[in-house]
């Protein structure tokens, strides 16, 4: 389906000076990578230089620290790859300008800062900036089970879980890296910016000037909604009129504070939040239309289910990832567990079963719908691609018959042998198994580690197809933990630890595949990409762990609170703990057929049927009929995902994403195709970069990343006794 689901109008520029070229219609969405990105390459450019090592190491440490801080924030912010790219460019060009290049100095400064050095630095830094699931699991063990792994064991565990995914990524290169259909739409802006910064020409000078103007503008703006005027992060007319009187209004329309509401008709002006939806990057029907349809259904489903007391959650808070007792208090998990963290049935009889909030239960069910739908969706819409690609997978070398122009340019470089990846996979798996046994009793037995690693391999294929062709990442952690609950009944720690191999491995595979594609677009030698990813993972593992320990030790009680504060929140870590207790200790009591949450488990199987009606309509209806065209654009995994996407964190940005997405991917793409081709992705890069730079400065200057927060004085735009958007406060 993804191969031909959208036609993109762009203008093919005949030369860098002449902007009046003819408009060319791209027949497939992935051809954007061919029309927008240059295949230009200079094999003589050095990759591993002093600048690469120095800046790569420094930015990797910096990105890992910042990403770990964001993990414990109420906002779902991340360190953008574009942010790493911009900082690397500024520092790299500065080093090239100030370090002498004659004599022995040439080893430190071999010439102008080039695109291959730059890309290697970006891969290192972005790899380190991707917070490992292992770090989150280790934090949950520390917070909720008082299991504190030895520092070296924890770091090796984080690194090993990432490298298992890297080994799998190497096997899947022929399927999810080399071909044109695997174009990773979110990376188009990254490559577009790299080429604009380094390839000469009058047009590119104009584009660089445009970039820095947009960068400076968002840098000057972003601090206003983030610090003195937070109401601008979620402007809700309904909340302003209500002014904190109604809980119903807060639940449905609120969106500015952590775990406040689902944000109907709430518009944000903070690009740090808006960029989570990447509205300038993703194709219209997959990133705007399908999510909008899913969220529209979600507004109705979440609200009706809560007020109709579905899952008996009416007396609990509206949004939270924690577990609750029947009286609405936080569930005391230690009261039902033995000292070795297994279920004590006698204690359970005294305490009673825990409950999810209704919105969190619905969200988990929808995520499992999405996973089931994704498996069938890829099979029915991409069967031919799967057959062809699997036929091209070879154990010791790449594929010879792939006609992607970027891949063909890469064939001049030595490829990474498949046995390198397989060796890395085996060693990492052995290290992971060994780390699991370092606490005396196994956190997870060896056979379970192997079992869930195999499962994650097959899931990575389905998830990889969706990410490579649409940019979407689907969550599988709830499905994995439900499966683990039946494999390890009564073992909450084991069920939580399964995430390292059933969940983390799959997603680390996807992250590695993306970077391999970035290397292919830039023509970075494959072995340099391999080394950059290894280095970034090592540095990231060290700083992920050390920063996590500092935050957890200094903010333990706040991170356990179901709501959190404006500065810190443990909502991500709490979700792992809640699932481990509910699914691990109480899997049979809560998720077996006929039990309170059995639909969450069976949702995976129900989701398998979602894509079939739309595929049959597209297959057998008249091709020119409106119903056949509509069925082609209905992406059921994405719709199901977004039905349950809202009851987390803050939600003030999504309606802004819709408006910007239509403006860019419909109006600009169709009415201003030349501008769209040259400036759309560059605009995305500039906005991401400028907002990330100011967000980093604010984090350390006033948000408490350096130890002490400096609160802005309360006023109408920063209310004290109301939520950020002037809705009623969320009860804690």
UniProtKB/TrEMBL annotation:
Domain of life, source organism: Eukaryota
Example of a GO biological process term: protein transport
A matching Pfam family: OPT
InterPro entries in alphabetical order: Oligpept_transpt, OPT
Cell compartment(s), UniProt: Membrane
Predominant location: membrane
Gene Ontology cellular-component annotations: membrane
Entry GO MF terms: oligopeptide transmembrane transporter activity
Topology within the bilayer: Multi-pass membrane protein
Keywords in alphabetical order: Membrane, Peptide transport, Protein transport, Transmembrane, Transmembrane helix, Transport
Transmembrane parts of this sequence: 48-70, 82-100, 120-145, 152-176, 182-203, 210-227, 262-282, 289-309, 361-383, 419-440, 446-468, 530-552, 597-618, 680-705
Record-stated family: Belongs to the oligopeptide OPT transporter family.
Protein name: OPT oligopeptide transporter
Organism: Wolfiporia cocos (strain MD-104) (Brown rot fungus)
